């Protein structure tokens, strides 16, 4: 009966439980709920525990079952259920860990895809941009055509400057070139406002001085260089706030007529070297290069005059400068063939192109042409090669045209301030008619941007070497010998033949000694060598004596090669003068060789 009663009570309770909702059976008489996760084993275990507890309460109420038995039965069931619950909990924990790791992996994969998507998006933008440019065929061609038009226009302007039209025409052309290649106030300045002067012309170059007006405020406002980063980032500046990088005055160089094959290669080589020296702050700044010329920094100075070459202080400073040039390492061919290759090239052009078409305009020219055409220059060049090979002169980077017109004397105190003044230009010319050619190699002690003084602290002259048109690796003795022979020629004559010759100005042995000793002293110091010995000095004397002949033959053939130039110069008179001097020195060498005579004088201990 007790059992039936318990079962009846249990059934009654179950019916009541089925009728009312509870946390163990949420689906009864309740609205459906959404569950993210449901563990059926946990719900079953909860129902089982409730059942055990219900049985225990019924038994205790009827007294048919003892207290100890109920406790034992209930403790065993709870332990078993706890163990099972703990196992299910650990299992769920493991699943959550796995789920978390999977989620992290998914996040990593998602991030990777996002990065790839970003890259692909950028590439897509680039491709779309290229596609738009490609679709619009006129873009690239328009840019190319614009640059071609600018280059052709500049070349035409350069030719106009070569033709030397009216001052108004040349001023307009010079202003247009500066406007295209410079920036700042140069973009808006009116040609009439520019300070424009034509420098002394030459056989190779035309030089023009171009400067902005003193009062820049009249020019109004201006922008930076077109399409430059500065023009995009910086606001428009006032003219009064002058940009340091903006030159106030420049030297406009227009290349003259070029002759012979590979003549343009020489111009390109000179421009490259000029650029290197400019970047190394050894020379003036280069502001622009264009077809037919370039724009350079203007340096106020004057070239030396011929009589100054013999002054001991200046001669020693020239020797020091030459030693510095000879110690330079320049990225050019370092072979020993430049002298003979250039001489042979000029002779070939003269023989094949000049001689057949030249008959002389005057009786003097006819006489000179008759003498020169009778010379077997091929034989002379071969003989000279053998002679110079015997002295074994070292190969160094040479200037190859160090005469007074290519050496500037910096005598006035100059700064970079806007109020600075400059000395008037000298009318002195070099052998190519060039006045102050400001392709300057500054004194190595002057490394600042401001040039405070052109004399050193101890009063020594401050000199600047210029014009590297003929620079190349060559025999050191040629550079020195050529400098000595140039003492006899002065290019300041304003009348035909536009030069003076005075062989009495050729340096004496004592003057040569001063130069050679100073040269070797600095040359050895630059190369970290021991001070020069007597043998070193005598060896260089021997080298120079042989290469004096090479200097005269070299410039003789240069003149015959350049004889078709329209720029006035006494080409044939100069060529004849150089050849006569070559022949005289050759006869002296042959005479000494036959008689077994040494050079004119040996340096002894007392001279050191």
Description:
It is a single chain. By secondary structure, the chain is α+β, with helices and mostly antiparallel strands. Among the domains are: 36-107; 137-298, Phosphorylase Kinase, domain 1, CATH 3.30.200.20. It has 15 helices and 14 strands. It has helices at residues 2-19, 40-62, 67-135, 138-163, 167-181, 229-233, 263-279, 312-326, 338-354, 363-373, 377-389, 476-485, 509-526, 534-561, 571-595; strands at residues 195-198, 205-211, 221-222, 237-238, 249-255, 286-290, 293-297, 302-303, 395-398, 407-409, 463-465, 472-475, 489-490, 500-501. The strands form five sheets. A five-stranded antiparallel β-sheet has the order 1-2-5-7-6, sandwiched between helices. Helix 4 (138-163) runs antiparallel to helix 5, helix 9 runs parallel beside helix 14 (534-561) and helix 11 (377-389) packs antiparallel against helix 14 (534-561). The chain starts with a helix and ends in a 13-residue tail after the last helix. The relative contact order is 0.08.
Give a short synopsis of this structure.
The chain is an alpha+beta fold and 608 residues long. The chain contains 15 helices and 14 strands. Helix 11 packs antiparallel against helix 14, helix 12 packs across helix 14 and helix 13 packs across helix 14.
